[in-house]
Amino acid sequence: MSVTQPQVLLVEDEPAQREVLAYNLEAEGMAVQRAENGEEALLLVAENTPDLVILDWMMPLMSGIEVCRQLKTREDTRHIPIIMLSARSEEVDTVRGLETGADDYIVKPYSMRELMARVRTQLRRTRPAASGRALTYEDITLDPERHRVSRAEQEVKLGPTEYRLLVTLLEKPGRVLSRDQLLDHVWGRNIYVDTRTVDVHIARLRKALTKHGGSDPIRTIRGAGYALG
Question: Is the pLDDT of residue 50 over 60?
Answer without folding.
Answer: yes
